[in-house]
């Protein structure tokens, strides 16, 4: 069953940043969400995980539970000053089975170490996260997603600022998720990368410009249209007169409150 957006509008103080978007994410496939800065891409991901309510329309999560959705926010929104080891961060991927406040089993620790190995960080478990480079930390967060073992994985600009080797290694993890028929939805800016690795694309600039096979969506005309919408949507988007009042949540908040 696909995750479906039904006339979804997400707004900040009634200014819509995702505006009447409808469509389905192909299950078991890689979908890129692309569009210019401020197009509402991150807001859409937050809405999918229940961190932002819909102000109109709804999201049908097709019966998915919180544990079925893995979410990797943008690096800039993560605080690394907390005194945690790499092993602590990766074992947090077990939160749905261990609970937040129960101890972590030896098996969970070993599983975390195996996933660190997969992302090229064997032996990193005892290191403090604030000692890592940005690329190493992104590998740690991918290891945490591997531990979570979710059916649906949402990635917000997962390769931004990473070097070619780290990007290739993490793209290989994503390709493996595709082979395992997991649904991956990733906000991306590199069109070449999208064309090469992501069969499905949602192109948006507040509204949906195109959604479907990547080659059919990323046409020069569509890209021109998306970029041309830039001045009309940022914080000055007109208040939507079709929408109801803000904060009328029509999607359950599956992982709201997760740290
Ligand atoms: N907490 C907030 N309060 C008010 N406005 C916000 C908030 N978060 C985002 N916005 C605005 O919503 C719009 C969409 O932001 P969003 O981060 O979803 O865009 P994006 O497509 O992910 O952009 P980028 O490619 O730059 O990351 C922007 O105009 C942004 O300023």
TrEMBL record:
SUPFAM superfamilies for the chain: P-loop containing nucleoside triphosphate hydrolases (SSF52540)
Gene Ontology MF terms in the entry: ATP binding; ATP hydrolysis activity
Keyword Transport: yes
ABC transporter domain ranges (all copies): 3-231
InterPro entries linked to this entry: AAA+_ATPase, ABC_transporter-like_ATP-bd, Metal_Ion_Import_ABC, P-loop_NTPase
Gene3D superfamilies: P-loop containing nucleotide triphosphate hydrolases
Keywords associated with the record: ATP-binding, Cell membrane, Membrane, Nucleotide-binding, Transport
Pfam families per the UniProt record, alphabetical: ABC_tran
Entries under CDD domains matching the protein: ABC_Metallic_Cations
Family to which this protein belongs: Belongs to the ABC transporter superfamily.
Name under which the protein is recorded: ABC transporter ATP-binding protein
Originating species: Pigmentiphaga aceris
